[in-house]
Amino acid sequence: MAATHTDSGSPCMVSVEAGSYRVSRPQSARDVIDLIGKHDIVIVDLKFTDLPGQWQHFSITLPEVHEELFDAGIGFDGSSIRGFQEIHESDMLLRPDPATAFVDPICETPTLSLICDVVDPVLHQPYSRDPRYVAKKAETYLRQTGIATTCYFGPELEFFIFDSIRFGQDPHSGYYFVESAEGEWNTGRDEGAYGGGNLGYKQRYKEGYFPVPPHDTLQEIRSEIVLTLQQAGVRVEVHHHEVATAGQNEIDMRFSTLTRMADNVMIYKYVCKNVARRHGKVATFMPKPLFADNASGMHCHQSLWNDERNLFYDANGWALTSDLCRWYIGGLLHHAPALMAFCAPTTNSYKRLVPGYEAPVNLAMSQRNRSAAARIPMYSDSPNARRVEFRCPDPSANAYLAFAAMLMAGLDGIENRIDPGDPLDRNIYDLPPEEASGIRQVPGSLEAALDALETDYAFLRKGDVFTDDVIQTWIDYKRRHEIEPIRLRPHPWEFYLYFDV
Asked: Which positions carry the signal peptide feature in this UniProt record (predicted)?
């Protein structure tokens, strides 16, 4: 996880070092105002994240952009944002973070985007339910523990690009319909209506990993996404087609610090969706949109550093890892059932977390083995490359909350020296039943994960990183808006199973 990088093409003004990764970004309101003039900006877009994890925004004109904006903030209606305020306490403030400024590569009108923090105007304090504030508090708490100065995250977000998607449900019908020219189900389709005959190059189920064009029809779109991300100041390492048929993809960003990486995840989703739309296609980060093929995960590489020293490395340790690294893994595995409430936070997430689709349902650690929940990548023996890859999260997660929760679980593991158990360097899915039965597994549903969070959240409360209000609001929102509505509605497969009873 070591690199030196200077993004000469990004609109940045001050060089900042973080470990061995160097980025340059505006650091003050004056820097941002100078940037606006340099790029002939005419609109400034203010972006922030709601509790479930989607970007919200509104735009302001140049007369409204001045240095006081970055201290005083600008008002908005918090009662209209999911998971935020009630109607009788709706007034909230957005405070732009100068270090997040980027010339928006999606907008045709010259636009500068700023990621904002949410402020309570009555308390004159950061808003407790602002996901970005939770992430910032986690980084502050890390430094307060004295264990490390920095936590780096490198998530691998997988996603699908479809040609079209239709779905709907009402009292007398319910359906979804996915279409993709790559889908194996289209090998027999008459494609004359699509501009030519059927050329036959379709991705077979579970065989979408790495074939070149013409099987991979999305090479150029992914390249465009990568170049657009770089315009937004996000460094990218690699892109490729993923395992599933019908357009599953992965684009890997360079690691960064916790909050900054969560910012980059939001930019990543924004760019992927909008570039796909330019091409008349649709990108989705829904974990399991297709039956009988692999789902989309968000494997999270993470490590702790003291300035320039990687604390997860030990030349004499198992898989070149330190005791501190293994205790961190112990914390992730011990608290995994509760973590899933933030890391796999949708009912659809648990259609991914089943055996047989490379999904890490078993709470064990390993080196190289992708069937384990916690893996030590072995591509390099460099001290800087030593890290843990936690494979349970998926891209439906709110990155600010998920990253913060993982860090807190790992720190709890270090503070309590939690033993992760013996490594399992075999295919866990092929273990004899008597061995497999002794391995803990992730929850089987969102409801079970929320139940686990209700009984195991003290580790999140340390340093007031997650407040009781945030945790309870999250649980209540998920139950009321996701679990209960799905429980009320018939599933199409139930008609197949039960219509003739």
From this structure: none
